[in-house]
Task: structure prediction
Amino acid sequence: MSQTVDRALSILPLLAEGPADLGQVADRLGVHKSTALRLLRTLLEHGLVFRQSDQRYRLGARLFALAQEAVENLDVREIAHPHLLALNEKCGHTVHLAVYEEQEVVYIDKVESRYPVRMYSRIGKPVAITVAAVAKLLLSDFPEAERRAITEKLDYPTYTSRSTPNAAAFMRELEKVREQGWATDLGGHEESINCIGAPIRGADGRVVAAMSVSAPNVVVTAEELLTLLPLVRRTADAISREYSGAVPEAKADARADSKTTPLKEA
Result:
C-alpha cells in the first residue's frame, strides 16, 4: 500500500513539469501502463489530475485549490516557535521572529535571553525599520522599484552613530543583504546591542518572515555574535523547509534515484 501511495504521489511532480501521456508516466515510474493508468484514474477521481482532449494528463484544479487553502492557513509563528526555542537553548541569547505588515516590520514572537541583561522589545511592537536586521531581510526581498519607493518614504532617525543615515545608504544596505542572504544590526539602534538575522522563505522562495539573535556587548562582542551566523542560518533554513512543506533531504534523494532506477513492479 505504501508503495502504491508513493508511486501515485510521484506522478504529481512529473506533471508539474508539463502534461504527460500514459507511456511517459509509466516510464518515469518504471511500471506497466496498466499500473500507471490505475494510479492516474485514482488521482483523476479526486481532481488532482486532469485528462486533456489529447489524452495527456496535467495537474488538476483541485490540487491548486488545496495548495492555496494550505498557504492561507499556514501560521509561520506556530511553525517557527519550536525552532526558536531550540536556538535559544543552544546560544542563550534573545531570539526574535518578525513579519512585514501594513508598512511596518513587527515582532510576532520572542524567546528571552537566559542572561540577566534583557532587551526591551515585545511581541506586536514595530521595529526600528531603518536599522533592524529583520527589517533589512524583509525589505531586501521586495522588487527594486518597491524597495526604492519604501526607502524614500521612510524617516531616518539617528539612534546612534551607526544608524542608517538616508535612503541611498539604506538601498545599498538592502542590496548587500539581498546578495549575501543575511543581515546585521551592529549598534545601529542601540550602541550596546548587536543583532544577526536570516530570512525564512516560502515555497516560492519569497521571504515570508525573518528571525534574529540579539545580545548586548556586556554578554558577547559583535565578533563573537557573528560566529553564530551559521547556526542562525541553519535554523532559518529548517523553518523555511517546514513552512514550505519541502520534501526532507533523504526523501528527495530517494525520489531523484527513482528517476534513474525504475521501481520494480509489485
In short: Strands lie at 49-51, 57-59, 94-101, 104-111, 183-186, 193-201, 207-216. Residues 250-266 have pLDDT under 50 and may be disordered. DSSP finds eleven helices and seven strands in the chain. The longest helix spans residues 76-91.
